[in-house]
């Protein structure tokens, strides 16, 4: 790798950029607890990029962990780069100012490594846009020795083929330990004058979690993958997820950044466990993030106390895929409450499972902020819950919500999903009926209706899950489901129940992209060239634009979303970590068995 000149853009940003954007606080940096090194004197410079705006990026725990871990390495500077909003991008392009980091205001191309955190399929156009704003070629094949290494990690690395042509190297699995190993390798090889290509090859051979797409090729027949082969000898053809073995002592930022502009979640966030013992058959994280590991109560308390002392945030949030499964939850909440209650700091416990935490609701949750209890019900009918492997019983659900009202809650948030296998029109309509029944439970406590906020999403079959082989329901199915649910609300006159629906077109696109192979890179690039960006934002998402991009390459967006895979075909993601294929198919067989059994006993 070449030693690159660091270009600092601070003067131009102050005079030609900040006065012309609507929210300059997104771009100024300098926040409390920011880490800033003398970037020019550092041996290796890393840009930690998040393909969304500041407020979203600042709330992402994974990025905060990497920022903390990498900046602890001597001779390494890690700085943050976030996607500029529409108005800021216009100023950057019109005035020919390259995309820059928050800490040093260094041009993106000045960094040795540009790393992206990928949390959703619909952030890919923002990745291309940020590279282009940084004047880095969006395609890896067009980059030379003067360009940074572009790497990516996060949940989408496990199904990354659709953007394989844009990224030099993917880190699969948990990033903090793996990133340190990779950075130490690059740092050493850079001193020796090793080329970009040689560094990538060395990393691919050394780490079983490092995937370098340019070192592999696919063979196709009848539009299906027939072969997946390396183009260099001694390369693996199946990868594993990186795992942090010692989670008790894993990195936890003790000095979180305090932003000038309020992020989506401004709170002390502490991971209490990793992995999930549940195996909801639609959930990629529950199948990919293994094994289950816990932090001790003492460690969590110490982290929360340290973070509070340097931030003053008024909420402590306990993070995990399934907080209810933390074995010492009651002890932990009491310990935190004893310390934080007098300081008027509340606790937030997402991801509670009603069936397991029912007995704890009155005692444990009395100290938790009463802004709203969140329950992921997923399906209104118990049989559909069995099919998706979420065995929540109605009696437990009702008892838990009743206990929550008694403990002081007045609002409950419910999550449902439509498009699940075996679902009927009655199951869809039952979402409205069940929600209203849960609202009416509060009458038993104080004679009033509870406020029920319901979010309804549409099933997107995810890679590395048992449902990955199944077709997504048609767009028209989801649109009709929305009408059925609202009609049921009106029939019941359920004024205290409020529904929010995910954008149907966005979910269809997510399915089409998420299970695609490398050939979709051209579609994503075409959509970006047509103006697609911030596809997770309602004010920016343009479904018709994406349809045009697919059609430009002879593809049907909705047909791809509804694709059903053969059980024996090579899947575009099966080499990219995740569980064994046979294990997932066994889960799918069990789900289909429950479905068939229910059909056999159904009385028409």
C-alpha Rg (nearest Å): 25 Å
Percent of residues in beta strands:
5-15%
Q: Which structural category do the helix and sheet elements fall into?
A: alpha/beta
**CATH-assigned fold name of the domain at 10-230:** Rossmann fold
Number of strands: 17
Instruction: Tell me the helix content.
Output: 25-40%
* Low-pLDDT regions: none
CATH architecture heading of the domain at 10-230: 3-Layer(aba) Sandwich
Quaternary status of these chains?
A: single chain
Strand order of the largest sheet: 2-1-3-4-5-6
* Terminal residue distance: 69 Å
CATH class of the domain at 10-230: Alpha Beta
The average pLDDT score comes to: 93
CATH superfamily of the domain at 10-230: Cobalamin-binding domain
Task: Based on Cα principal axes, name the global outline.
Answer: globular
Count of helical stretches: 22
**What is the makeup of the main sheet?**
6 strands, mixed
Textual characterization of the structure:
There is one protein chain. With 604 residues, this protein is of the alpha/beta class. Among the domains are: 10-230, Rossmann fold; 267-369, 2-Layer Sandwich (Transcription Regulator spoIIAA). 37% of the residues lie in helices and 14% in strands. It has helices spanning 10-17, 54-57, 61-71, 86-94, 124-133, 175-191, 196-206, 284-288, 297-311, 329-340, 354-357, 361-364, 382-387, 394-406, 425-440, 443-446, 475-492, 504-514, 521-529, 543-552, 557-561, 581-601; strands spanning 44-50, 76-82, 113-117, 149-153, 169-171, 210-211, 216-221, 224-230, 268-271, 273-274, 293-294, 315-319, 346-348, 373-378, 411-418, 451-458, 497-501. The strands form five sheets. Strands 2-1-3-4-5-6 form a six-stranded mixed β-sheet, with helices on one face. It has a four-stranded parallel β-sheet with strand order 14-15-16-17. It has a three-stranded parallel β-sheet with strand order 9-12-13, with helices on one face. A hairpin with a 2-residue loop joins strand 7 (216-221) and strand 8. The longest helix has 21 residues, at 581-601. The radius of gyration is 25 Å and the shape is globular. The chain starts with 9 loop residues before the first helix and ends with a helix. The mean pLDDT is 93.
